[in-house]
Amino acid sequence: MSVARRTGRRPGGPDTKGEILAAARVEFAERAYDGASVRGIAARAGVDPALVHHYFGTKEQLFLAAMEIPFTPSEVAAQIMSGPQPGTGERAVRTFLAIWADPVKRAPFLALLRSAMTHPGAAALLRQFARRAMLARVVARLDVPDRELRAEAAVSHLLGMALMRYVVKIEPLASASEDELVSLVGPVIQRYFDP
Question: Which of 4, 24, 31, 86 counts the highest number of beta carbons within 10 A?
């Protein structure tokens, strides 16, 4: 009795998911978010692209897992943009602070931001991802002039606040309550979203 030999890509094994994540990290680092593809990541991992989709779904979800991004951009954007337009600034600040307040979520995000500050490839990767996955969803719902610039300015303001609060730990910003910061920063962020 002869045994048929399997050809093509190997099926998933015990650590296939880990191998796909490792391949994705290399592929994203070398090709950035826009240049990386599920097919290329699968080839690097030696698996069928369908297996990548099976484990991770979309390229965005694979990026989130590979880079350990502590939030789902579509959910964050939906949270910020839900509700009446005059409350967008407040929702943006609350949502952003909730992500940063959780030490488990904050750690990988800080690592990615630190990498982006010192490594041009990491900066390009974060920039492309932020534009495609996060800002594009918010910008699409804005009806204001210069909406891309406004959305980027709002994010830069929020990132600056988070870095000063959680990394530099400048007082009294570091010990201010969430409600205090929402009251103080929410109206400023709201101005970016107002016509």
Answer: 24
